[in-house]
């Protein structure tokens, strides 16, 4: 009896050995649709950081280096779920259409200057951050491009990140390249390339137009195929080429 169970165990172990490398590989390479769209919980690391393990570790290393140069890297926003993005989108859509009386399509165009359609935010991936310098005092909204310009409050932060962020594999996503379409310049939004590149590749291999047409949040009924195709081309794919 003992012998029999021993054989069974070794047999199972033998199979596991041969199958495991394949399983590990596919788990690393494949991201599910719900994961790519922020519709499932993923493992996040670090209090106030909330990134995937590898991205978290790289951020900590970058934060230490910045700290010794007098910059206090402070995350304003990192992982965001589909539901959270849905709340943001719907609130803006209601404000623009009901309070401001905008045409629905014009309202959507205005929303997507800075905000994403739920399910398409890079913040769903646990790889992207909105980051500033926590040291200087500043009033009002911090995520405005003017605050990162010459002579402005985050000028040193910007110079430091330009010089060092790529050493830690963090790349600016929405650059100030005048030829770039899609989202406006966001000097605060960085992405951890080693994970976000394969995630973008996985996402663009899905039928995004069809997925978004199935959505039922407020405003989604106005999405046409043409609009969604342009959105994918401009807002999802017209980004810093280092991240493609
Ligand atoms: Zn962002």
Automatic annotation (TrEMBL):
<feature type="domain" description="D-alanyl-D-alanine carboxypeptidase-like core">
    <location>
        <begin position="49"/>
        <end position="194"/>
    </location>
</feature>
<dbReference type="InterPro" id="IPR009045">
    <property type="entry name" value="Zn_M74/Hedgehog-like"/>
</dbReference>
<dbReference type="Pfam" id="PF02557">
    <property type="entry name" value="VanY"/>
</dbReference>
<protein>
    <submittedName>
        <fullName>M15 family metallopeptidase</fullName>
    </submittedName>
</protein>
<dbReference type="InterPro" id="IPR052179">
    <property type="entry name" value="DD-CPase-like"/>
</dbReference>
<dbReference type="InterPro" id="IPR003709">
    <property type="entry name" value="VanY-like_core_dom"/>
</dbReference>
<dbReference type="InterPro" id="IPR019546">
    <property type="entry name" value="TAT_signal_bac_arc"/>
</dbReference>
